[in-house]
Design goal:
The chain has 499 residues and is of the alpha+beta class. It is built from 17 helices and 23 strands. A hairpin with a 6-residue loop joins strand 4 and strand 5. Helix 2 crosses helix 12. The structure holds adenosine-5'-triphosphate (ATP). The site of adenosine-5'-triphosphate has 16 residues, from strand 10, strand 13, strand 16 and helix 12.
């Protein structure tokens, strides 16, 4: 097959096929040709994703005395979504091309055009276009959005024509019915964000945990959005996972905390190994209905800088709406003295939210780790080495243990090493194929250490340890393996950068 001339698309294609071929991400129900925008995590993918989730969880709950966790249900009372504004306004503007019958997000077509201007060095034009789009969306002028698409001569990438329909709003929530009989059934929604599970439990947690403002509630869980266009692999899915934290603060102090979390979250992404020059802030021009400040942290994917996390100052919008609709007070009594020496008293707290997609973080991590290096094979011929340069704390498998040959007691010795390490680390044993091939397989899944048991091991209880990135090999006493691996793969090394 001829290579795609677009190097960025090529690089994403390589990542997608690597993820599939080596057990990270599979298309959902692939034997039935898959389900668009839904993916399954394979045996190594789930380990990597779990490591990312654990790190996030620990960064939130262990490094902050005043942040605690929660695991709310996916189904919630339908009024939740009335209060949050999702029933009325969780919409995306969509547009169809009449010739290709393909559907697009109207705003994304225009954003892509702006990105094109930027790539051509026309930054002002890009900025103007985004500002115009922001204003049109803010005023709900869908006709204006269509006119902008036409004026910019944006064509459908499939048909190449500009035979567009009008722009319409499309609600992104999935709904289903609860109750077995039609007459008592009612519509419920699959949550489009995990945040509302936190808001409706704000007082439960505050009271039972005796929490004082400021405090945070962190949650990891599935969210569902009927995205109009699902593209770019696991970047935009219809079922995905969010890691969200709502930080409840005194009204008037939200900007201080917004600045704090904005900085803290960028540090997290750097600490897990995403390079500084591939991360940037993007302040929102158009604010969501609930926010008085919002910024995205963007990562430079092969398809450009795109959001991986949103930090939003959500004011008291959500708690107030729930208070109004449920008729249950959502207030906190603040005993601390104000500037006049009197207690602050009762108020509905303001909220600063950090919201990162576990799947987007996974994709960013995978893109960043994917490495190709020129090397030579056993006969000295040029050969490319592909490996995943994952932070050892994130790597799905920490060490692979190989007997050099399948005889003379080496497998038994290697299994002893396996037994020694497996309660502490995710390690695997492999005895098939030549040792070079076994190294290659571990490189492809990012295993930081390969431990080879050879004849010398039988004599002096040492093994060779091969390091993934340098391919250098050291002779190490079996008794020292636990400490060596433990130090390298520990999440502590990441978390201590965040203290
Ligand atoms: P986008 O503008 O890309 O649609 P968003 O602004 O709607 O994203 P938020 O509502 O702020 O996203 O959600 C917080 C985080 O959840 C995002 O930063 C992203 O990492 C993740 N996320 C949102 N939608 C999806 C999706 N369809 N697939 C995967 N992750 C998602």
């Amino acid at each position: 097959m001829a290579d795609n001339p677009n190097p960025q698309e090529n690089s994403l294609r390589k990542i997608i096929s690597h993820a599939k071929e080596y057990g990270f991400v599979f298309p959902s129900s692939e034997i039935y040709d898959g389900l668009q925008a839904v993916y399954d995590y394979g045996q190594y993918g789930v380990e990597l994703k779990n490591n990312l989730k654990t790190l996030w969880w620990q960064a939130m709950t262990r490094l902050h005395d005043n942040v605690v966790g929660l695991d709310a249900a996916i189904f919630m009372h339908p009024l939740t979504w009335k209060a949050s504004g999702h029933i009325d306004s969780f919409n995306d503007p969509m547009i169809d091309n009449r010739d290709s019958k393909k559907r697009y997000r109207a705003d994304v077509l225009i954003e892509d055009q702006a990105a094109q201007y930027e790539r051509n060095g026309q930054a002002d034009q890009a900025q103007n276009l985004l500002q115009t789009l922001g204003k049109l969306l803010e005023s709900g002028d869908l006709n204006g959005v269509r006119e902008l698409i036409v004026a910019e001569k944006i064509t459908c990438p499939v048909s190449g024509t500009s035979n567009w329909t009008e722009v319409r709003q499309f609600n992104l929530m999935f709904s289903t019915q609860v109750g077995s009989l039609a007459e008592d059934s009612s519509t419920v929604y699959l949550r489009p964000e995990t945040a509302q599970g936190i808001f409706v439990n704000f007082l439960n947690v505050q009271k039972t945990g005796r929490m004082k403002i400021p405090f945070g509630i962190a949650q990891i869980g599935k969210a569902f959005r009927n995205e109009i266009v699902a593209r770019q692999f696991i970047f935009r899915m219809r079922e995905f996972e969010q890691m969200e934290m709502q930080y409840f603060v005194r009204p008037g102090q939200e900007m201080l905390w917004y600045a704090y979390w904005k900085e803290a979250r960028l540090r997290f992404h750097r600490a897990i190994g995403l390079p500084a020059d591939k991360l940037r802030y993007h302040d929102h021009v158009k604010l969501a209905h609930y926010a008085n400040a919002a910024v995205d942290i963007e990562y430079e994917f092969p398809f450009g800088f795109k959001e991986i996390e949103g930090i939003h100052s959500r004011t008291d919008f959500d708690l107030k709406s729930h208070q109004d609709l449920s008729k249950k007070k959502q207030q906190f009594f603040d005993n601390d003295p104000d500037e006049n020496g009197k207690p602050y008293g009762n108020y509905v707290p303001y909220v600063v939210e950090t919201s990162v997609g576990a799947d987007r973080l996974f994709l960013a991590t995978l893109c960043n780790a994917y490495a190709e290096e020129a090397g030579v094979d056993a006969e000295g011929k040029p050969k490319e080495r592909v490996f995943l340069k994952l932070h050892p704390a994130l790597a799905p498998v920490k060490a692979a243990i190989f007997p050099l040959v399948r005889k003379d007691g080496l497998p038994e010795k290697a299994r002893e090493v396996l037994k020694l390490l497996r309660l502490d680390f995710n390690v695997i044993y492999e005895e098939r194929d030549a040792i070079g091939k076994r190294y290659t397989r571990q490189d492809l899944i990012g295993t930081p250490f390969c431990i080879a048991v050879d004849y010398q091991s039988l004599e002096d209880n040492t093994v060779t340890v091969r390091h993934r990135d340098s391919t250098a090999q050291d002779r190490v006493a079996i008794a020292d393996l636990k400490a060596l691996i433990g130090r390298e793969v520990s999440m502590e090394r990441i978390l201590e950068q965040l203290e």
